[in-house]
Design brief:
Blueprint lengths: L4 H9 L6 H11 L3 H6 L16 H7 L9 H6 L13 H8 L6 E5 L6 H14 L16 E6 L2 H13 L18 E6 L7 E8 L8 E9 L14 E5 L4 H11 L5 E6 L7 H4 L4 H12 L9
Parallel strand pairs: 1-7, 2-5, 2-6, 6-7
Antiparallel strand pairs: 3-4, 4-5
Amino acid sequence: MGMKIPTYHGHENGTTGLRRTAAIRYAKFYNISLDWLLMGVGDGRQKLRAATVDSAETEAMLGAADTPETHPAETATDPAFNRLAAYRPYPKQKLFHEGGAIHNERLFMAANQVGKTLAGASEWAMHLTGHYPDWWLGRRFAGPVRMWAAGVTAQSTRDNPQRVLVGPPQQKELWGTGTIPKACLKEWTSARGVADGLDSVVVRWSGGGDTGAQYSVLSFKSYEQGREKWQGETLHGVWFDEEPPLDIYSEGKTRTNALNGIVIVTFTPLLGMSDVVKLFLTEADVANMRRLAKGEPLNPHVP
């Protein structure tokens, strides 16, 4: 590949940032797609044009491996900068999305690394941009929205929802490779106290066709800020990525009441039958989930 071994090892163990051009090198060398390499989308073998071995554009980009800048003409045709268009939910993700048509509060609770955060980020990107696919049967907003995405700490918010929505936090040249398309990212404000963290992002909304420039606003929050920092705003939606304390959940939900907004929660159940889990599930539901995980038959007395 023409890459130094220490650089390769740094990419492998996460101690060295991965530039876009280096990602394309890997995709070309291993004959895999950038979607799968950077986001885990697809099966890895359905190659994107930017990673195709015989693509003239790819050869040109590989030849400029030391140039990190991203050019508008490049992003306009590069599928890596419009991952939202490639999102195809598996059945459980699809069921989660469709529930938004009738429920203002939803929970996606599952094991690690099964696509919970990707589902939340993809839905948030649709609402923020107004780009709803033909298969979408969930909640729709008719205009620009104001939304929050939150995690446990400022760092975990940066490393999870921000990363999946916007792109790798430490690599600004790759911002736009998250679920919010590059062409829709208008501007952003940096967060204080956390390196490479964002406080808010302004997103171009074009769901209404040729109606002039309209913009949605996405802000990032953390549970560690405390309930007081969650007060005052009126929102269309709040996304909790990882389980929040009950007081934070209640305050976030309150932010959506005036606009009949939505609340989504995506997490792996590490805290057992917590107060937030009890808002969505009964003890019997959890017991049956444990039986399924162990391969045991369900309790027939649980509806």
